[in-house]
Design brief:
mainly alpha, 4 helices, binds zinc ion
Length: 159
Amino acid sequence: MTTASPHQGMTLRSDPEHIQLWQKLLADRQREHDKAVAQLRDRIAALERELHERPEKVVERWHGAAEIEAAKAEAQRAFRSRQNAWQALCEIRLLHREASDGRCRCGKRYADCPEAQIVGYYPGLAKWEKEQWERYRNYEDHALPDRHPALTNPRWRPD
Ligand SMILES: [Zn+2]
C-alpha cells in the first residue's frame, strides 16, 4: 500500500487502490469533520447554556441589589419621617411643659394647657430628647431640632 497522495493524475480513476485511498481519506476527513462539528456543537450548546443561565443570574443579582437598595431607602425614609415627628413633638414640648410653679412654660396653668396635656401622652419624648442630647454631647449624629436650646446653651440639661 502506497502512502503517496491520491493526486496522481490520470491513474486515479482506473486504479482501485487509489480509489480506496480516496475513500479512506474522505472517510477520515469526514470523521475529522464530524468530530469538529460535534466539538463545535458542544461548544455552542455550552455557550447557549451559559447565555441562558448568565442573564438570569445577572438579572437576579441586579434585582436583588436593587431590592436591597429600595428597602434601605425605604428604611431611611421611615427613619427620617419618625425623626421628624420626634423633632416636631420635641419642639412643642420645649414650649409646653410643666415649669416649677404649676404652670406651663407657655404661661397657662399647666392643667389648663391642652398642648402640655398632649405632650404628656408621649413619655418616650423626654427619653428621645435625652438620647439625642447625649449623642450631641458625644459629637455623634443627633436629631435635635435646629432651634433646640441645647445647641446654643452649653448649660442646658434634659429633665
Ligand atoms: Zn402650654
